[in-house]
Amino acid sequence: MKDPDASFERVLATLAIVIIALISLANVVVRYITDASFAFTEEFSVFLLVLVTFAGASVALRRHRHIRISLLERALPPRAQQVLITFQGLCGIVVLGLIAWFGAKLTWQEYQWGTLSPGLGLPQWWYLLWLPLLAVMMLWRQCQQTRDRLRGGLEDES
Q1: Which residues form a coiled coil (predicted)?
Q2: I need a surface site. Which of 71, 100, 120, 129 has the fewest CB within 10 A?
Q3: Residue range 96-131, pLDDT digits in tens
Q4: How far apart, in Å, are the Cα atoms of 75 and each of 71, 147, 154?
């Protein structure tokens, strides 16, 4: 079976890492030459690191690569394993659903209030919008992973 993929998230994470590297390199070069640095690099780098974290977690979910302890799963009979996998999937869905809901609520509030970022004065919701979007993407990947595990398509590494 071909490994499941999350190509959108992989591309997003790759672009974020490349942008972090480029703006950090540019900042170092400018600071070396002029003794001044770009003001935007820290704010953008922090945002992009959060983006990389969520996109990478989504890829890990899809590829069944999250850290887990499967001792209990392996000790259970097949029917009980199915119940446990379902329970694990539902727990992940609930948590990611809450992150998406409250992230969307926070993003909407920041939009309504017109809050600006502390460093550059950009609308804060520009940064926050990615939280619910990527949480929904992770939720989708959690559903795919749970489905695949219930069908026996994803095996734990021994």
Answers
A1: none
A2: 71
A3: 999 999 999 999 999 999 999 988 899 999 999 999
A4: 6, 21, 17
Cβ 73 vs Cβ 44: under 8 Å: no
Determine how many CB atoms are found less than 10 A away from the CB of residue 143. Answer: 15
Cα separation, 85 vs 144, in Å, equals 12
The residues spanned by each domain of the chain are: 7-65+74-150
Q: Count other Cβ atoms within 10 Å, centred on residue 20.
A: 19
Give just the sign of the alpha carbon dihedral 129, 135, 139, 141. Answer: positive
DSSP 63: T
Kindly report the pTM of this predicted structure. Answer: 0.85
What is the token pair recorded at 22? 């480029």
Asked whether 33 and 5 are in contact (CB, 8 A), the reply is no
Q: Is the distance from CB of 90 to CB of 14 less than 8 angstroms?
A: no
Amino acid identity for residue 150 in this structure: L
DSSP 109-158: HHHHHT-B-TTT--BHHHHHTHHHHHHHHHHHHHHHHHHHHHTT------
